[in-house]
Each structure stands twice: as structure tokens, then as C-alpha cells.
Amino acid sequence: MTEPHQHEKIHIGMRNIKTACSATLCALLYYFLDRNPTFACIGAVFGMGNNMANSRLHGGNRLLGTIIGGLLGMLLFSIYIQVYPDGDKHLLMLLLLFVGIVLLILAGQLLHWPGAIQPGGVMLCILLFNQPVDTYIIYSLNRILDTAVGVLMSLLINRFFPRERVARWMIWLCGGHYDGVEAEG
What we know:
Number of strands: 2
Strand content: under 5%
Radius of gyration: 20 Å
Strand order of the largest sheet: 1-2
Largest sheet: 2 strands, antiparallel
């Protein structure tokens, strides 16, 4: 873990505010849908960058990784339950994990999106080791949907509330001064 430099000031910045708004709006939306907002909020946090390009990169990593890991996980788990329909744990799962990780890395390379490998690996492991036989497909599809909602929320927040607009609002709220920025005029 790196320590902040002596001259760096800990502060609530634009990205902090926008990330909190994005995750909170996801949770609010899911409150009305009567769904668990956890993975949408995670997608929102991963999807927020300091600008649109950064949001697309990090949100894209999370979403694409979740899609690839989810699809691979569904495929490999379906193979597994053909051999062990009860879903009990057997060593075959280790071979499928190995194959899944290799395929995941190859997919990341093929798509020129190596940042998708880590979140894809998380999704793959959750599906292979943590899902009952009767829910692995719906679980995977729900995680892909929830992640997409969170990433989309962060992209929308970053698109409609760029740094400059939020800075003006923060200056107004803070009485003419915010984070080293003075109000004009």
C-alpha cells in the first residue's frame, strides 16, 4: 500500500462525489425494483473514472470480464453437471477451472482487453465454486445485467456531470471556494 505524499491533501474530489452518486442511484433504482443492488453498485464503483475515457476503460473491463467469465462459467458448469448432476465437489472442477482461466486469458488477448481478465476470473470462480446446480444460469445472467446497470450509471453520471460542471456546483455550495478553486468574477 502506498502512502500519500506529505504535500497531498486528503479531500473529497469530483470523482469521489460522482462515484458516491452513481452507487447511490443504483441502490435507489434497485430499491424500487426490489432487487439486491450489490453488483450494480460494484459496477458503478468500477465504472467511474476521472473522465469518460477512463470510465469506459474501467467500466468496460468490469462489464466485459463479467460477461466473459459468466459465459465461460455457465459453459464449464454445464459440462460439470453432466458428469456430476448433483453438483457435489469433485476434482474435475479443478481441471475445468484451469481450462476456464486459460480460455479467459485468451479471450482477453483476442479482444485486446486484458483488463477484463481479472473481473472475469472472479466471476468464473464464483460460478464454479459457489453456485448450486439449479441457479447457476440465472445467477450468471443477473450478475451480467447488474454489472451493466452499474457501469451504465457511471457512464451516464460522467457524461452528464463532467468535472467542470460539478466543480461549479461545489464552488457554489462551498461559498465561492472549493478544493483550491476560486469562483470566477
